[in-house]
Amino acid sequence: MLFFLIFSISSNAFASKVLIPMDAETQSNHLKAYGIVYYALENQLKVNWLLNYRGGSFLVSDSDKLRKECQIRGVDFEQISDSMAESILTEISSPSKNMESVALEKAPKIAVYSPKGNKPWDDAVTMALTYAEIPYTTIYDREVLEGKLVLYDWLHLHHEDFTGQYGKFYAAFRTAPWYIEEKKEAEALAKELGYSKVSEEKLAVAENIRDYVIGGGFMFAMCSATDSFDIALSASGVDICEPMFDGDPSDPGYQAKLNYDNTFAFTNFHLERNPMVYEFSDIDMTAKRQIPAESDYFTLMDYSAKWDVVPTMLTQNHTRLIKGFMGQTTSFDPDLIRPGVLIMGECKLNGEARYIHGVKGKGFFTFYGGHDPEDYQHRVGDPKTELELHPNSPGYRLILNNVLFPAAKKKEQKT
Fold first, then answer.
1. What value does the CA radius of gyration of the chain take, rounded to a whole number of Å?
2. Distance CA 309, CA 151 (A)
3. Given a cut of 70, is residue 119 above it in pLDDT?
4. Same domain for 61 and 76?
5. How confident is the model over 359-406, as pLDDT tens digits?
6. What secondary structure letter does DSSP report for 343?
7. Is residue 411 part of a domain?
8. Are 353 and 331 in contact (CB under 8 A)?
9. Is residue 171 included in any domain, yes or no?
10. Is 401 within a domain?
11. How far apart are CA 158 and CA 124, in angstroms?
């Protein structure tokens, strides 16, 4: 009886929490760790995100199923006692430590806005979700216009062109069969949905997404979905498309008719009028970059975890220096970013913003420049990235920080 009592006490003192470390030294698969956290939330386990503690580690209620799932997925974990967990939380709560513990409450419902024909490897976010084993639903224009965004907590915008200019691929690919087919399909869908032009239909989609965010949604966008989204909103009621895109001339002097009050992140930008130039506006700094690939890095900003919880969550990583990567929209001109929008990652060598975040109404948005964090200069037709070769990618970790962001119990931001 005495032996049983001693054994029972020692067992209860030892293994009641699972710590999923996220530092560089002890986690062999950072990306799949996010999937484990999502799995824990799906199974109603208590999860705390330990901001700035060992690379943004996670503290989870102990479970046989959870530990087995970690082993199956190759995620490193540590079983710790209640007293050890309390010691960690006490350290984190100290006013002298730039750390914070944030409770994660539920597994967010995730939607990816993407054409149905696109493969998961066409987009970094779908690759990250698939590799981390986080479930998502693919939606597109029909679902958005039917009001189905309210079913989801988090929305990612695939590399879309919301301006109706087909990605500005005209110069290089106008005779390519895939370009001709995609243009034809977009025009047919717009007509089916009741619009005479693709640009008008895409504007309606952008405005529905805007309303979703204002109502409390979380939106994440990369590459051309960032600036083309704001451009479309600014050009509401203005024809900025040349005849090869929509069959009629653009409005004379359309630059002066843009309404910057409609945008999320950017202001005072100038559009690229030439349809033969692979660029939407001067928001993007791709053409202005003079950085050798080996020197192309951007730095994550440091925030006060106790005062600025939101940007701290979104910048959790095992390094503050992130390898650069390019895209149609690689980076953002800081002079054209609206006041109040946070620049969370910047490349000082080129004076550019890479990773930005803001509030719109009751919701949030994050824009991330570039196409694929592990493919430096992605081109049409390039092979897909194998994330099995990059399980610790800090660039991909930023994406997955955003995926978990809606799960966090919201605290009032103090600055």
1. 23
2. 26
3. no
4. yes
5. 999 999 999 999 999 998 877 667 889 999 999 999 999 999 999 999
6. E
7. no
8. yes
9. yes
10. no
11. 9
Q: Based on the number of CB atoms within 10 Å of its own CB, is 358 exposed (0-12), middle (13-18) or buried (19 or more)?
A: middle
List, for residues 262-309, the tens digit of each pLDDT value.
999 999 999 999 999 999 999 999 888 888 888 999 999 999 999 999
Q: pTM for the complete prediction?
A: 0.93
What is the overall mean pLDDT for the chain? Answer: 92
- Do 98 and 114 fall within a single domain? no
Answer yes or no: do 188 and 265 share one domain. Answer: yes
For residue 303, being part of any structural domain is answered with no
For 14-56, the pLDDT digits (tens) are 558 999 999 999 999 999 999 999 999 999 999 999 999 999 9
Q: Are 134 and 403 in contact (CB under 8 A)?
A: yes
Residue 29 and residue 155 share a domain = no
> Cα–Cα distance between 262 and 268 in angstroms, integer?
12
Q: Are 232 and 143 found together in one domain?
A: yes
How far is residue 53's CA from residue 70's CA, in Å, rounded to a whole number?
Answer: 20
> What is the full DSSP assignment across 257-305?
G--GGG-SSB-S--B---TTSS-SBSSB-GGG----GGG-EEEEPP--T
Same domain for 51 and 119, yes or no, is: no
Phi and psi at residue 112, to the nearest 5°: -115, 120
- CB within 8 A of 190, min separation 6: which ones? 196, 197, 198, 200, 201
Residue percentage of the chain with pLDDT more than 90:
84
Same domain, 121 and 214: yes
Q: What pLDDT is attached to residue 159?
A: 83
Q: Which domain holds residue 32?
A: 2-104
